[in-house]
């Protein structure tokens, strides 16, 4: 039960916004994943496709891993929960997007 007035909630989202956005796609993070070397976070799909060709963090240039960058990228459940809580429509929109995807591609999965 959230007893905070609406306005206070909105201010918090504004303050936190920069930490919730993925610098690779400029959207709210989906399946937030954090580089354990520097704790920068991105969408899982964004950072995974990024490390296909680059082993350095897109924000701070730290080397993620010499050979297997995926091993140093961990899903960040706390951050993702926070994003979904602060941006309740995100989950809904994402689910709708996926539903559309499955509707258009009935044989996938
Ligand atoms: Zn992204
Ligand atoms: Zn970094």
UniProtKB/TrEMBL annotation:
<keyword id="KW-0862">Zinc</keyword>
<dbReference type="InterPro" id="IPR013083">
    <property type="entry name" value="Znf_RING/FYVE/PHD"/>
</dbReference>
<dbReference type="GO" id="GO:0031519">
    <property type="term" value="C:PcG protein complex"/>
</dbReference>
<protein>
    <recommendedName>
        <fullName>RING-type domain-containing protein</fullName>
    </recommendedName>
</protein>
<dbReference type="InterPro" id="IPR017907">
    <property type="entry name" value="Znf_RING_CS"/>
</dbReference>
<dbReference type="Pfam" id="PF13923">
    <property type="entry name" value="zf-C3HC4_2"/>
</dbReference>
<dbReference type="InterPro" id="IPR001841">
    <property type="entry name" value="Znf_RING"/>
</dbReference>
<keyword id="KW-0479">Metal-binding</keyword>
<feature type="domain" description="RING-type">
    <location>
        <begin position="22"/>
        <end position="61"/>
    </location>
</feature>
<keyword id="KW-0863">Zinc-finger</keyword>
<dbReference type="GO" id="GO:0008270">
    <property type="term" value="F:zinc ion binding"/>
</dbReference>
């Amino acid at each position: 039960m959230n007893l905070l007035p609406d306005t206070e909630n909105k201010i918090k989202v504004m303050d936190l916004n920069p930490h919730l956005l993925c610098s690779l796609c400029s959207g709210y993070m989906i399946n937030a994943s954090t580089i354990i070397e520097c704790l920068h976070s991105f969408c899982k799909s964004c950072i995974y496709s990024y490390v296909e060709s680059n082993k350095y963090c897109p924000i701070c240039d730290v080397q993620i891993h010499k050979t297997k960058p995926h091993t140093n990228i961990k899903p960040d459940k706390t951050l993702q929960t926070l994003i979904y809580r602060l941006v309740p429509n995100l989950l809904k929109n994402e689910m709708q997007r996926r539903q559309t995807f499955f509707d258009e591609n009935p044989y996938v999965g």
